[in-house]
Design brief:
heterodimer; A: 227 residues; 78% helix; B: 270 residues; 5-stranded parallel sheet; 3-stranded antiparallel sheet; ABC transporter domain-containing protein (chain B); AAA+_ATPase (chain B); ATP-binding (chain B)
């Protein structure tokens, strides 16, 4: 546990020092929220969720790519693969909650009559899913530019796709859209349940993929015998 | 002429070479007497102080340093073969390093030195061959290996936690190792803002912090000034005397007489 928490702390410290990046990451969800604010608040809030998802996944991408060269030596220094990816995840989840909190405050001050508990849950889904999503992209694509473009594509797809289609249900942030509809449009609890189930499933799938890819990258090669 | 500035430089270099203070005092007194009697320019009589100090230290160390007892096998690489596409990089390479030995891996650019070290560290797989390591292993890569937005002390804490060291103990050990490399001001500079040589020292400290049995160093002196380079080799010799097995990729052929094994990959692959 000490190893895991140390990695989480160092992940947070590293990201906290990239203040310019953090400020720019906050800009996108804010722009998403404000750009349609004068029209329909539901769309504005659902865009905000996507923006938070993008910000956290991009932070996760940068963090993961930045750690590519240090993780193998930490593995040799006694860390297990799960110490490294779970520690990074804990750090990123903490950062994500800190990033999302001001937006929750903004929405609660800027609107009335919404289900704010559900809005919090939708934001939490975005944060929880976005961190392993960004890590996964960071493991698979070695450069920040490619990874950022891929995440932008995923976000754009999420925004333009019809949420009622089957393919929309396999996009990572569909849960936040469903919970958002429940929160803003005063719909039945089936939206909330559907969204929550999707959020849990998406998180578990992302965690499993991160575990598999990270463990494969940091695996002990069969030619090396340590006695 | 005033030879004192030259003598002060000589004293510093002799200490850097690992001579004890009484030995330094004796050498400096002899040289001072010679210069006073001959009235010669010290640079004309003895040359640059660092070169003269190196020669004196070498003569004082004597041949005994080459005949030391060695321990059990720590690293054994057998039949390592590696291809990248059509290019054969390593062909049936063998290397055995015992406790208390330094092995230098040398060869032309692109002959597979780093590839061999990465295979020994288990970072990449060979097409054929095995590596057996008896004990713990540490690797200092040629590039990267540090986190640009963390402080040196945070690197020490991160590496130390892997072996269950407390944060204070990691920092104390890290700073002590840094001091041995002539890096005293381990302060509030992020790793990404350190000079190339200092970042390489950080890399090296991270590798030695957990007292591994086998140390793999890929050109650890990049960006070092001369003093740091001397300090590095002294630290490697100390680690060797402590029973560590060390493999170092190097271009600096002038130090090869100070190592126990030389593996020339240009020859091995030909």
């Amino acid at each position: 546990m000490k190893r895991l928490l140390t990695v989480a702390e160092m992940t947070l410290r590293e990201l906290a020092r990239r203040r310019g990046v953090i400020a720019l990451l906050l800009l996108l969800p804010l722009a998403f929220y404000l750009i349609r604010r004068d029209q329909y608040i539901g769309q504005s809030i659902r865009s905000l969720f996507i923006g938070i998802g993008w910000a956290v996944s991009t932070a996760a991408l940068f963090s993961t790519i930045g750690a590519r060269s240090i993780e193998p030596r930490l593995r040799l220094a006694g860390y297990r693969a799960h110490d490294l990816y779970l520690g990074r995840l804990v750090g990123l989840w903490t950062l994500g909650v800190l990033l999302a909190a001001p937006f929750l405050l903004l929405v609660s001050l800027d609107t009335t009559g919404l289900r704010y508990g559900a809005i919090s849950l939708a934001m939490l889904c975005c944060v929880v899913i976005a961190a392993p999503l960004g890590m996964l992209v960071g493991y698979l694509l070695p450069r920040e530019m490619e990874g950022t473009l891929l995440l932008l594509t995923a976000v754009a797809l999420q925004m333009i796709i019809d949420p009622a289609t089957t393919i929309a249900k396999v996009t990572p942030f569909w849960s936040s859209r469903e919970i958002g509809t429940y929160a803003v449009d005063n719909m039945g609890t089936d939206y909330l349940v559907r969204g929550s189930v999707h959020g849990i499933a998406a998180t578990l799938v992302m965690l499993a993929l991160v575990a598999v890819v990270s463990s494969a990258r940091l695996r002990r090669r069969p030619h090396l015998r340590q006695v | 002429m005033n030879a004192e500035p030259w003598l002060a430089l000589l004293a510093g270099e002799l200490r850097r070479q690992g001579l004890a203070d009484p030995q330094v005092a004796t050498v400096v007194a002899d040289v001072r007497a010679h210069l006073r009697d001959s009235a010669e320019d010290p640079y004309r009589a003895f040359g640059a102080p660092e070169r003269y100090a190196a020669a004196v230290a070498e003569s004082l160390r004597g041949p005994a340093s080459h005949a030391r007892p060695v321990g059990p096998v720590r690293l054994q690489a057998d039949g390592i073969t590696k291809r990248y596409g059509r290019r054969q990089v390593l062909r049936d390479v063998n290397l055995t390093v015992r406790a208390g030995q330094i092995a230098a891996v040398v060869g032309a650019n692109g002959c597979g030195k780093s590839t061999l070290l990465n295979i020994c560290a288990g970072l990449i797989s060979p097409d054929a061959g095995t590596v057996t390591v008896h004990g713990t292993l540490s690797h200092s890569p040629q590039d990267g290996g540090t986190a640009p937005y963390l402080l040196p002390d945070e690197h020490f804490a991160l590496v130390g936690a892997g072996k269950g060291l407390t944060r204070d103990r990691s920092r104390t050990a890290g700073r002590a190792r840094a001091g041995e490399l002539g890096w005293q001001d381990v302060g509030a500079t992020l790793a990404g803002q350190l000079s190339g040589g200092t970042r390489q020292k950080l890399n090296l400290v991270m590798s030695t912090l957990t007292e591994p049995d086998v140390l793999l160093l890929d050109e650890p002196y990049q960006g070092f000034d001369r003093g740091a380079y001397v300090n590095l080799w002294q630290q490697l010799w100390r680690l060797r005397d402590d029973g560590k097995a060390i493999v170092v990729v190097t271009h600096m052929l002038n130090e090869l007489d100070q190592v126990d094994i030389v593996l020339d990959l240009t020859e091995a692959n030909s």
